[in-house]
Amino acid sequence: MTSISHSPQEGRWRARIRDMPPPPAQCGDVFWVFRDVTRRPWTFGPKKSRPCCCVDADPPEEEVWTAIPRLTTGISKSDLRSAASPSIGLDRDGAWSLRFIHQVLKSKTGGDACRYLGTLDENERDCLVGLYEQRFREQRA
After folding, report:
1. Where are the beta strands (DSSP E) in 2-106?
2. Going from the N-terminus, what domains does the chain have, and what CATH number goes with each?
3. Which of 53, 97, 103, 123 would be a feasible disulfide site paired with 64, CB 3.0-4.6 Å?
4. pLDDT greater at residue 21 or residue 81
5. What distance in Å separates the CA atoms of residue 78 and residue 38, rounded to the nearest whole number?
6. Secondary structure of the chain: what % helix, strand, coil (to 5)?
7. Which residues, 6 or more positions from 41, have their beta carbon under 8 angstroms from its beta carbon?
8. What is the pTM of this model?
């Protein structure tokens, strides 16, 4: 949001940027997410924060987006392997885990507790979103 303010000392108008709302999360965007900005923080495990990838930017509930966390330990056969990607802060090999799906509050996206790291490459994004969507279809069947 840009606001215009007048400074009597300077005798002129000036623009000031304050608290710009973050852009909405898109599929494939990776954020460093603290558990307190999720709907169910107790499901985050012992870690207070971890990288998470947006797999559904517009779920039925308007105030959240859906995220899949990235693990570097406790990786299961059902998890999607992920090579290190230092350019977006993923310094070690790991995996995206569908065992832990989080609802992240849109109002906190882009702030200190949900910092944008970057976007997955197209291939990894498509694999992760496809895996998430397939899981969802299987649950309905």
Report:
1. 2-7, 12-17, 29-34, 49-56, 64-71, 80-82, 94-96, 102-105
2. 22-140 (2.30.30.110)
3. 103
4. 81
5. 23
6. 25, 40, 40
7. 35
8. 0.80
